[in-house]
Here is the input.
Amino acid sequence: MAKKVFGRPESLKETYFHYCPGCGHSIAHRLVAEVIDELGIRGTTIGVPPAGCAVLAYNYFDIDMLEAQHGRGPATATGIKRALPDRIVFSYQGDGDLAAIGMAESFHAANRGENITVIFINNAVYGMTGGQMAPTTMLDQRTTTSPAGRNKILDGYPVKVSEIFSQLQGTTYVERVTVNSPASVNKTKKALKKAFQCQIDGLGFSLVEILSPCPTNWKMTSVASCKWIDEVMSKEFPLGVFKDNIAAVKKPAEAAS
Amino acid sequence: MNKVLMSGNNIIAEAAIRAGCRFYAGYPITPQNELTEYMAEHMRNVEGGVFVQSESEIAAIHMIIGASATGARVMTSSSSPGISLKQEGISSMAACELPGVIVNIMRGGPGLGNIRPAQGDYFQATRGGGHGDYRTIVYGPATCQELADLTMNAFDLADLYRTPVMILADGMMGQMMEPVVFKKPKPRQYSEKFMLRGAGQGKSKFFRGLILDAIDMEEHNWKLERKYQVIIKKETLHEEYKTEDAELVIVAYGTAARIAKGAIKRLRENGMKVGLFRPITLWPFPELKLRALSKKVKNYLVFELSTGQMLDDVRLALQGYAAIDFHGRPGGVVPTPAELANVIARHYETID
Ligand SMILES: Cc1ncc(C[n+]2csc(CCOP(=O)(O)OP(=O)(O)O)c2C)c(N)n1
Ligand code: SF4
Here is the structure.
């Protein structure tokens, strides 16, 4: 009998994504679903999709989901998690959602050390509303609301979420990854697994920032978008683990038990 | 049951906990801080009780949304400026049909205003407040006993209709002390099918307010509207005081109604036939009851601690069948019953 080597994750519904070709959301969704399957937490996980291109995530993930208003995901997730501490709760957010309108909710959920996981899709633009400037837009990057390029005098600087959140005492695991090559996709999956495992073990707030192509609003081909992440975006937003306190948090927890 | 002497803010909190509220999130604002502080102190001693001091009123409402979706009984409280910030979430709760209780201990406004008692948030509370085609059940308690009873009822109605319910009181009600008896709460009835607790081995589900297809969205709007019509039919509450022989009826709610009652007692002693019509549910407004009263009584004076907001509902209810006048003290001014009695007496003399 032939061995099945590839299939649809159980945590994804039988349907097509609405995402544009070459969009990082599709890859991120699949990876999250694979990780949920592999950790055996499909039945206990509750996801919180954002307002943003991923607003319809509940049509794709075959898990319980509660839609959040724009930026409020981490507050909504806090409510779920505090009410049901033994469930696995994640919030899925874009850069406008997390770093502009929802900065307060995200920052304070992280600072409280909520035992949740935030999946942060950084595509340097507001995808859903048509490619406007995001807090993460690069200096000089042209968008529909920065037609002459992002001007640091008028628009400020790209917000570095992983760097900032790793400084908060409440966070346990913070990593920035990307999905622009097979190797980086594998790395992202590992980061997601680590983040969810951190939550399963009750070790506190985890955030995975994914540099994610948006060919449509970057006005590039999919291949050029992947290249742009390597050549431009990851220079401003370096990849890597910004914080890994898992071992340190685990020790006192083990000593106490 | 024993009578206990407590302040309004503490009564609401205690009634909520007794009603089974197990999740509270709030942000400090005067004149409702005692409510938040009571929750901080007491939730930790209740099994499964969660208290979160949120980073803002916005975060608080979205936290209770999350907890409500899991099936917990939830509450948040604030005062006027903070309630403005909660509107996004209240609209969301109405859309997603999530139960929850929101307390507004009103203060003077607009803007930061002041921290004195006022009733300027009537429009915001009774017209929905947030965006979209929805309604919020609004209770306007006028005594500490009502604060206790209506808070408990609010949780039952929120569950029954899967909708947000607001307690609209003011700084006076929040701060004042009266003896109360806490009634026995009703056992909770809330189906698991309305809870998100992880799919387990079964089918996954999701709650959402986004409905992209216009026809589906229209149907959802009509579904909510049918529910609101049932609420109007079944849940409208009001009180009438000395209206049987009245020549003039004062229409007032909450603190204004208390003051009006005091004034009416004085006026009656002087032989003036004045009564009180007091809406207890502000939405649904007791429109038909007031209209029915207009068969007998032809003169009304609306009294509010605002420039005239409930006045609109009185006009809609009376539809020109009776004369309506208005007296308002906005901005945190609270007249005494004697002062109001003078105003009413002057008005009484002008009616024929
Ligand atoms: C309160 C509010 N303001 C604005 C919007 C409109 N809106 C929807 S998604 C979005 C931005 C999405 O951008 P981002 O978070 O970066 O996610 P992406 O679409 O790029 O994945 C905005 C502004 C909204 N839904 N709610
Ligand atoms: S607009 Fe950008 S982020 Fe949105 S689906 Fe298309 S490629 Fe993805």
In short: Chain B touches chain A through 40 residues (CB under 8 Å). Chain B has a mean pLDDT of 97. The radius of gyration of chain B is 21 Å.
